[in-house]
Amino acid sequence: MINSAKIMDMYSSSFSDLRNNFIGQDITWAKKLREKAFEQFCKDGIPNQNVEEWNVFPYRDLRDNFFSASSNPVDQQSINKLNSKDINCSIRMIFFNGKMVKLDIDKPIEGLQINSLKYFMDNSPDLLEGKIPDASFYSERRLSNVVDSRPQGMVALNAAFYQDGVVILIDKNTVVPGHIEIVHIGDAKTISMSPVRSVIFLSENSKCEVIERIFPTCKNTHLHLSNHVTDIQLSSQSSLTYLRLVDGNTSDIHINNIHASLKNDAKLYCPSLILSCGQSRIECRVNLIGENSQAQIDGLTIGHNKSTSESLTRVMHGNINSSSNQTFRTILNDESRASFLGKIRVEAGADGTNADMSSKSLLLSENARANAKPELEILADDVKCSHGVTVGNFDPEQMFYLCSRGISQPEAKKLLINAFSKVVIENLPISLSKISEEFFGFDNFII
Amino acid sequence: MEVLLEIEDLEVEIEERKILDGLSLTLNRGEIAALMGPNGAGKSTLASILAGKDNYKSIKGSIRYLGKDLFKMSIEERASKGLFLAFQYPVEIPGVAMSTFVKIALNAQKRLRGEKELDAIEFLKLAKIKAKELHMSEDFFKRPVNVGFSGGEKKKAEVFQMSMLDPILAILDETDSGLDVDALKVVAEGIKNFQSKDRGSLVITHYQRLLNHLDPDTVHILADGKIVKTGDKTLASLLEEKGYQGIIEAA
Ligand SMILES: Nc1ncnc2c1ncn2[C@@H]1O[C@H](COP(=O)(O)OP(=O)(O)O)[C@@H](O)[C@H]1O
Ligand SMILES: [Mg+2]
């Protein structure tokens, strides 16, 4: 084990080495943001268990290793191995070790600009100005009004080291046909990270569906950290569906941060489907700053082996008549662990708020564990808020009933697992639900 | 007459208490037997043991079904060999549609018996006929199993499952409770349609009104953990008159 001071030194020297080669270093605002982010990372470091939001799992691999952002050569073979994109997919971007290697567009779509972050930084950085917030913007505001930047150490690390990402900019009144798919693959020839920084901006009355799919890195490789930050801004009356499919093997650590802000009548639907063998942590922070804005944040996780999966949500209701719904379902095998940290905050004056949060876990093995911590901070008067949390095994009465009709135990379990996940799958539009079911392979789900 | 079910000296203990204590009962093919007894006598316990519930602390005695040792069969094997239990309290299964559930069950049984499975169209055709016989609307196919069903709907749904799965031995645990007069008639019809010279029914009930429809061959009274009296259908009328206490004291 290397001590943490030594690891911070390694990040520092890596930052100095890469400084001149980072993207956007010739752009004053971008350079400033990066320098500031690095300063903050040096101050806060990788979050430890003293930080409230990080106190469930130890994340030792994350803290005890230096993850190098300098990239390995592209493996063309593993890119060729990907299936061709499906018919509903109008645009596909492929990232290898965090850098875009392929952009596949059927035909240009009017009102849509899409490319890698590197491309935009090199060609039209002015389009990005103001769309990448300062790292401190994400700091946690405690009930005591103390502002705590430590929980966002991973965002600071990303903001200091990012080398590429996805940029999607959509003009007024544009409806993007089909869906956009972003695929991440990689190998980890050394202990490495892919700091991916993405920006999704929807102008007034536009609409778009995005699937971001993270494949596991090749087996038996080194630890790999995919540290993604996605900033989403939804202008009034715009609507975004943002589906994440995360699949990892035992050496993969996924830390994904999603930050969204919604103006009047904007809608965000953000489901994450996670098949975890390693470590995954999805954080989703949503600011409902517009009237009548709506967010639906869902999660369906299947944990295997000794995996740990953590979901953190922070939904802030900052205006009247906004609504949010969070539906999380977790199915845990083997010795897997899961944790849900959900918070709803309703600011003073945000009357007419409607907020629901539900997290349920199904333990398929006696060695699996789940933990859930729902929090409500309500500072307004006229608010409808509910939350429900359960952790349990198969219900023996249900099992007996099913088997008494001739259904075998494994088949009965499969039926109950499907029923358990249904609420999340059912929310998906049909074209995406097929993709998700294939992703999980429910038909040959093994218990 | 071929014996369908033969229970000998059954003893069941739950939480240090003997619920069944030397219960013996025989049911033949072609027979409708009524099982009556006070609340808490152990009727449902007996029914669930027959269906295969095995979380009881200790079970002694023997049960033979179709000549085979029932305790050696798994729950699903019993079902596939034609044993059906209509639950006193049917279990709610949110997220599973009634039609999905019955189709999976029916095909699972067929698979275990080595028969050809039904495809979606064949299944739906059959289900529509059976639902109609029971005066049930088809929209209940799509509803999650027993969720939000009224008491009567739950009981009808059990009879629907019975008629779909087409068992050999039907154990009906208070399928008549909570039914209005019309629903009772429909349920009684369902049971009568099922009954044949090859099949047997064990009808657990408190009331004579279902038995008036069914015309049982035998009536057993369960009390103190055993069958205290067996008779023909006049025993049920006697019971109505004298109550359980009167019968048990006389026995
Ligand atoms: N799972 C159980 N745990 C503890 N006691 C039980 C359980 N099931 C049944 N009993 C008890 O066993 C007795 C018989 O119950 P039951 O078979 O439901 O009677 P009946 O159906 O004749 O009304 C009752 O005293 C009941 O409280
Ligand atoms: Mg009972």
What is the CATH T-level topology of chain B? Rossmann fold
Task: Give the tally of β-strands of chain A.
Answer: 21
The overall strand count of chain B is 12
CATH superfamily of chain B: P-loop containing nucleotide triphosphate hydrolases
Which structural class matches the secondary elements of chain B?
Answer: alpha/beta
Beta-strand content estimate of chain B: 25-35%
Strands in their spatial order, largest beta sheet of chain A: 2-1-7-9-11-13-15-17-19-21
Distance between the termini of chain B: 28 Å
How would a textbook summarize the main sheet of chain B?
6 strands, mixed
How would you portray this structure in words?
The complex is a heterodimer of chains A (447) and B (251). Chain A is built from nine helices and 21 strands. Chain A has helices spanning 4-18, 28-44, 60-63, 76-80, 117-123, 153-161, 396-403, 409-427, 430-440, and strands at 89-96, 99-105, 112-116, 140-141, 147-148, 166-170, 179-185, 192-202, 207-214, 224-234, 239-248, 252-262, 267-276, 279-288, 294-303, 308-317, 323-332, 337-346, 353-363, 369-378, 383-392. Chain A has a ten-stranded mixed beta sheet with strand order 2-1-7-9-11-13-15-17-19-21, with helices on one face. In chain A, strands 3-6-8-10-12-14-16-18-20 form a nine-stranded mixed beta sheet. In chain A, strand 1 and strand 2 form a beta hairpin. With 251 residues, chain B is of the alpha/beta class. In chain B, strand 11 (218-223) and strand 12 form a beta hairpin. The two termini of chain B are 28 Å apart. Classes of the chains: A alpha/beta (447), B alpha/beta (251). The complex binds adenosine-5'-diphosphate (ADP) and magnesium ion (MG). Magnesium ion binds at residues 43-44, 88, 173-174 of chain B.
